[in-house]
């Protein structure tokens, strides 16, 4: 770690990142797995400005914290008191957990890096390191993961609610308004459900809108994309369609 970033920190008792003040619940949650008390405390303190941070000092403790809270990213040391941090990553990948993981370790040989990436890690940073680089890599991991996780397939179209766009089957981006995005996202959450106009009005529109607005915005979405993206169920309402290119 860059020596210019050294600071004195008092380790706090680890606890689920979800147990945070209401204002901090909007911050991404990160699990730091590091057994060095000084480096762990310092890194956790620096991350705390932008993340809800849990700090574990062993594989066992990391498993306990992961069982009690959802994390958006993992920062994992390799040489831990009760095992290799890579085994933790392998276990997660083996059970289908795709949370992005960055290995942070002193093991810097090419073979070590290859082993880490092959084990399922998304990135690998060696010690000593600059904290600004760790932050940048963490931001990149979160961007990539959220972009993938938050995409919703609607037939051959890809809806990206966070970006207010939908991509056609050829990858061309079509901009949507907030209401159009909310309407499509709500329909896509339950593809087999027929949503009444009242349900869509309550979930996707601002207070004071009338039922006629639902029909208008369904027409807007179809006009920007394809008519088959939203199916009309006569006498009942709407459901998501299965449009093809």
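^ structure tokens above, recovered residues below v
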């Amino acid at each position: 770690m860059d020596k210019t970033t050294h600071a004195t920190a008092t380790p706090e008792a680890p606890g689920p990142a979800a147990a945070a003040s209401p204002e901090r619940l909007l911050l991404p949650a990160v699990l730091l797995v590091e057994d060095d008390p000084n480096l762990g405390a310092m890194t956790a303190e620096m991350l705390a400005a932008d993340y809800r941070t849990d700090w574990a000092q062993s594989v066992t403790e990391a498993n306990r914290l992961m069982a009690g809270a959802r994390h958006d990213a993992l920062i994992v040391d390799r040489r831990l008191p009760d095992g290799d941090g890579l085994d933790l990553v392998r276990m997660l990948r083996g059970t289908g957990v795709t949370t992005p993981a960055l290995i942070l370790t002193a093991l810097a040989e090419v073979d070590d890096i290859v082993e880490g990436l092959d084990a399922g890690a998304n990135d690998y940073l060696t010690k000593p390191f600059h904290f600004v680089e760790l932050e940048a890599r963490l931001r990149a991991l979160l961007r990539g993961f959220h972009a993938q996780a938050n995409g919703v397939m609607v037939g051959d179209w890809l809806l990206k609610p966070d970006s207010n766009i939908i991509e056609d089957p050829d990858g061309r981006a079509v901009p949507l308004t907030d209401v159009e995005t909310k309407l499509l996202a709500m329909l896509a959450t339950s593809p087999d459900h027929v949503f009444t106009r009242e349900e869509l009005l309550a979930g996707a529109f601002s207070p004071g809108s009338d039922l006629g607005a639902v029909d208008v915005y369904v027409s807007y979405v179809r006009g920007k994309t394809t008519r088959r993206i939203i199916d009309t169920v006569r006498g009942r309402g709407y459901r998501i369609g299965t449009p093809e290119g």
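Residues 80 and 192 are 47 Å apart (CA to CA).
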